[in-house]
């Protein structure tokens, strides 16, 4: 279960964390164990996935999916899990957009869950959007 107090106010966030993290844990593990069949797709998509798989790239992505899912499920490091999964979600959306549009509804739901969780942890992300002037000026001789 999510490692934070689950009260009426936190229940939607906890549910979103469980759903998002389980999706990435299951599909990440499927990349190694192949317990779910892959749906048929078009030849260009199969060629693309074959190239990614033959280089070992997909194993890294699947491992990162499982790490991100575990971080979100653990609770305390959920913002770090979102940082890991964010680029993966973007790549899944691009794959679906260019190769398999039938998958777009799933990535929209997963992206929505990630944004919902991210908004609830906004205090961890706001520093990325604040300018730090101390580090931008050159202080030479």
From TrEMBL:
Keywords: Membrane, Transmembrane, Transmembrane helix
TM spans (from-to): 18-36, 56-73, 80-98, 104-121
Top-level lineage group: Bacteria
Protein name: DoxX family membrane protein
Species: Armatimonas rosea
Source organism phylogeny: Bacteria, Bacillati, Armatimonadota, Armatimonadia, Armatimonadales
């Amino acid at each position: 279960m999510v490692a934070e107090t689950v009260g009426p106010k936190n229940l939607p966030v906890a549910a979103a964390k469980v759903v998002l993290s389980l999706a990435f844990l299951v599909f990440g593990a499927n990349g190694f164990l192949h317990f779910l069949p892959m749906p048929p797709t078009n030849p260009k998509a199969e060629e693309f996935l074959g190239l990614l798989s033959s280089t070992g790239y997909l194993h890294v992505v699947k491992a990162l999916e499982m790490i991100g899912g575990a971080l979100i499920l653990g609770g305390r490091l959920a913002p770090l899990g979102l940082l890991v999964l964010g680029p993966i979600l973007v790549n899944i959306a691009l794959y679906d957009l260019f190769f398999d549009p039938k998958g777009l509804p799933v990535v929209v739901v997963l992206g929505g869950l990630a944004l919902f969780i991210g908004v609830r942890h906004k205090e961890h992300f706001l520093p990325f959007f604040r300018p730090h002037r101390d580090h931008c000026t050159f202080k030479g001789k």
